[in-house]
Predict the 3D structure of the following.
Amino acid sequence: QVQLVESGGGMAQPGGSLRLSCAAAPGFTLDSYVIGWFRQAPGQEREAVSCIPRGGGHVYYNTSGENRFTISRDNTKDTVYLQMNLLKPEDTAVYYCARGRRGVCTGTPGDYSYWGQGTQVTVSS
């Protein structure tokens, strides 16, 4: 049973933008939890991209995403977003959102207890 549902992935050209969404499935909730975005490219380990604490704010783990990616949340919709601008081919990956088991952001996948199925982002000209 999937508790988090990602959407918004797809194809983009270098320099383009995409906005990913992470929504809670019925009966599940995100608004009281740390939510992280991770990505995994073929043949590579899953890496942390960004995290948002329960009350808002942001943490960015992938320095290449700094100043290009923005994480936000709308607790009225129980949804977390990742706005990605100035996309690069190296941003190509499956992007996952996950609900943290701790009260603080971490970049460690093991600190997240529920995961979505992922959404593919492909950046290519």
User: Anything to note?
Assistant: The first strand starts at residue 4 and ends at 7. The CA atoms of residues 36 and 51 lie 4 Å apart.
